[in-house]
Amino acid sequence: MTTKTAHGPASPMTRHRTSGWLAFAGTLAVVIGAFNIIDGLVALFKDSYYLVGQNQILVFDYTTWGWIWLILGVVQIAVGAGILSGRMWARATGVFFAVVAAIGHLAFLVAFPIWSVLTIALCVLLIYALTAPPAGARAN
Q1: Residue 25 forms part of a structural domain
Q2: Alpha-carbon distance 113 to 6, whole Å?
Q3: At what angle do helices 20-45 and 62-84 cross, to 10 degrees?
Q4: Residues 6+ apart with CB under 8 A from 12
Q5: Which among 64, 85, 103, 112 has most CB atoms closer than 10 A?
Q6: Does residue 94 sit within a domain?
Q7: What are the b/e assignments for 120-130, b being 16+ CB within 10 Å?
C-alpha cells in the first residue's frame, strides 16, 4: 500500500499581486508633492512671481497659499512613499489629496495657468493610477 504525502510548507504562502501602476502612482505622488512644495516656497518668498494683479487668489493671500501648498506637498511626498511601500491607507489618502490638489490648482489657475493645468492633469493621472489596480496589489 502506497500513501501520498504532501511536500512543501504546511501553510500556503501568501502572494501579493504586483502592479506597475502603483509604482507609477507612488513616483507620481512624490513628483506632484515636489511641485506643490515648489509652489509653496515661491508663494512664500517671491510674491511678484505669479501673474495676478492683486495680492489675493480667491480668498487667500500668497502667504496663506504658500503654507497650504507647502504642507500639501510634504503630505503628498509621505503618501507617495506609503504607496511605494504597499500601504493600502496610502492609496486611499493619495486619491483624497490628489483631488484636493486638483481643486486647489483650479483655484490657483489665475495665478499660474500652465503650471496649474499641468499639475491638474498629473493629479487626474494619479487618481487613475491609484484606483485601477486591484485591491491588495503592491508596487513592484
Answers
A1: no
A2: 65
A3: 160
A4: none
A5: 112
A6: yes
A7: bebbeebbebb
What pTM did the predictor assign?
A: 0.79
CA-to-CA distance for 120 and 102, rounded, in angstroms?
5
Grouping H, G, I as helix, E, B as strand and the rest as coil, residue 139 is: strand
Number of structural domains found in the chain: 1
- Which pLDDT tens digit goes with each residue over 79-110? 999 999 988 899 999 999 999 999 988 887 87
Range of the domain at 44: 37-134
Identify the residue with better confidence: 71 or 44: 71
Residue 10, domain member (yes or no): no
Report yes or no on 30 lying in a domain: no
DSSP-derived letter for residue 17 is -
